[in-house]
Each structure stands twice: as C-alpha cells, then as structure tokens.
Amino acid sequence: MNKQNIITPFVKSQLGNTGMNLIPKESGREGVDFLIGTNDFFLQSIDLDTIDRSAKIVKKDLGKLRDNLFIILVLIIEEEPRMVYIIPSKDLSQSESEIFISNDVSLMPSLSNWEIRISVHTIPKLVKYSLESMIDKLKT
Fold first, then answer.
1. Where are the chain's structural domains?
2. Per-residue pLDDT reduced to its tens digit, 90-100
C-alpha cells in the first residue's frame, strides 16, 4: 500500500477527533495539500523505520513562509503513522534550531530545501508542535 494512502486518512482521523475537518485543496499551488478554514497545510512524513531521520521540503514547492501555512509532519513507526505534528511554516526559519535546517543551494536554487531533523534529542522539542498543543492556534 502506498504510504500516502495511509497517512492522509490517519491525519484526517486525528484532526476529526478534535472537531476539525481537513479539506483537500483542489486548486492553487502544488505545495499546499489541504485547508482548514483559512489555513493552508503541506503534508510531510518521515519513516523512522529507515535510516533516514529527516524530511526535506523543496523551498520552491512550499512557497513563501507565512502565518497561515503549516506543515503537517507525520512520523511513521513500524510501518504505521503514529504521531502528528503541526509546524507553523515560519518556524522553519529559526536560525538556532536543531530541528529545522535551511539548505540553500546557490548554484541551483531549485534544489534549496527546508530540512526537518528527527532524533532522540529533537523529539522532546517537537512536543510544542504536537496536535494537542496546536489545536487552539488552528481554531483561531
């Protein structure tokens, strides 16, 4: 089964449990996958069953960082989606972060990306982005 086919229903279910409805965005920029009210969401997953411990989002795909753009980060463990984090896009630009890294490729800007790193040290710092912690921000 395609991982996207299990991630999207999982995210919709998790958000549905909070009374929010995730609506697929049918038009517009490719980088925005879903809507909740006036907020745009980009869906990204990290499969922790592999050796890769980061996700890279092409800057061009995500577009300009703004207040109403969020990344839905889903952690996959033992082939199942387990955790949902809602990350405000502007937080990607934190310069002193162990989690968010800006990889700028000056010779080929189309390869520039935002990297989200997951490790034993960064998981506790992600708690502030857990779905439970972000509910109020999303409902306003």
1. 3-139
2. 999 987 788 99
Q: In what order do the strands lie in the sheet with 113-117?
A: 54-58, 113-117, 100-103
Q: What percent of the chain has pLDDT over 90?
A: 43
Rounded Cα–Cα distance for residues 70 and 133 (Å): 14
pLDDT band at 4 (very low <50, low <70, confident <90, very high): low
Kindly report the CATH class assigned to 3-139. alpha beta
Can you read off the two tokens belonging to residue 10? 């999982």
Exposed/middle/buried for residue 116 (C-beta within 10 Å: 0-12, 13-18, 19+) = buried
CA-to-CA separations, 103 to 4, 56, 64, 120, in angstroms, rounded: 25, 9, 15, 22
